[in-house]
Amino acid sequence: MSQISIAIDGPAAAGKSTIAKRVAKKLQFLYIDTGAMYRAVTLYVLEHGDKIIENISEHIDITFGINDEVYLNGTDVSKEIRSPEVTNSVSRVSAIGEVRSYLVDMQRKISRTDSVVMDGRDIGTTVLPDAEVKIFMQASPEVRAKRRLLEETARGNTIDLQTLTDEIIRRDQIDSTREISPLVQADDAILLDTSYLSIEEAEDKIIQLVEDKLEV
Ligand code: CDP
Ligand code: CDP
User: Fold this and answer.
1) Pocket flag, ligand 2, residue 16 (CB < 6 Å)
2) Cα distances (angstroms) measured from residue 14 to each of 18, 49, 130, 143
3) Which atom of ligand 1 is nearest to the CA of 14?
4) pTM of whole model > 0.80?
5) Which residues cross the membrane (predicted)?
6) Quick one: DSSP state of residue 162?
7) Confidence of residue 54 (pLDDT cuts 50, 70, 90)
8) What pLDDT, on the 0 to 100 scale, is given for residue 157?
9) Tens digit of pLDDT for each residue in 110-162?
10) What is the predicted pLDDT for the residue at 2?
11) 12 lines ligand 1 (CB under 6 A)
């Protein structure tokens, strides 16, 4: 049976993972958070040094749990991969060719056996260029920084809006200008600006697109 793939790309805090997870649940597809995979590699590199990247497949195994927990070599690292240290280094590590080819292969393999909703930066352009539905999710930097501020405050962290805005803009800049599969909207992706959409509205729009496309 052929599998169906939905690709969701876009910059930080556009709403990709929140909405992708809900769409996957509704369609009973597998949700794959590729950002979490790059974060897990970054965590390992911060602990063991860049040298391990030369033979990355011998060092790193990444799997997901049933509640989207991320396992790095068998240990649940879902919390650790969201630390400021990982966030500050993830775009640098993600620009390295060996890291990308290792993870892209892994992501493609998953999509061969399961229907997926996959989110990231290069899913529609590189990982799954034949995805049935491609979304490029966007929101203004101000809105995205405010969303992150709410999340950090809820976690009990004190951080100011300007620092978060600067971090988001810096990461978007590295992600969009890197040499290998930069963050760009695929020619056949549909632009979805979530700045003034609720999570439910954005989810409904994607489900509608999927239904139109697949006539389900
Ligand atoms: O959730 P947030 O927007 O903070 O980012 P993420 O989706 O967890 O991704 C973290 C970082 O991983 C991004 O800023 C990119 O540098 C990198 N990434 C990538 O290069 N390619 C992907 N397909 C997904 C993430
Ligand atoms: O995965 P990505 O970095 O693109 O964003 P996210 O982590 O899914 O969303 C960032 C934050 O924005 C989350 O706290 C979402 O609940 C919130 N959000 C929102 O308030 N309204 C939306 N339409 C989408 C996301």
Assistant:
1) yes
2) 9, 31, 23, 9
3) 3
4) yes
5) none
6) H
7) very high
8) 87
9) 999 999 999 999 999 999 999 999 999 999 999 999 999 999 999 898 999 99
10) 79
11) yes
Q: Residue whose CA is closest, atom 6 of ligand 2?
A: 15
Please give the distance, rounded to the nearest whole angstrom, from the Cα atom of residue 38 to the centre of ligand 1: 7
pLDDT digits (tens, 9 = 90+) for 167-179: 999 999 999 999 9
Tokens read off for 173: 């800049």
Give which of 2, 3, 74, 76 is closest to 36, Cα–Cα: 76
**Nearest CA-CA partner of 171 in 97, 88, 103:** 88
Could you please report the per-residue DSSP string of 89-139? Answer: HHHHHHT-HHHHHHHHHHHHHHHHHS-EEEEESSIIIII-TT-SEEEEEE-
Residue 73 and residue 43 in contact, taking contact as beta carbons nearer than 8 Å: no
Positive or negative CA dihedral for 200, 203, 207, 212?
A: positive
Of 33, 70, 147, 200, the one to substitute when testing ligand 2's pocket (max ligand atoms within 8 A of C-beta) is: 147
For the chain, domains (ranges, CATH) are 5-211 (3.40.50.300)
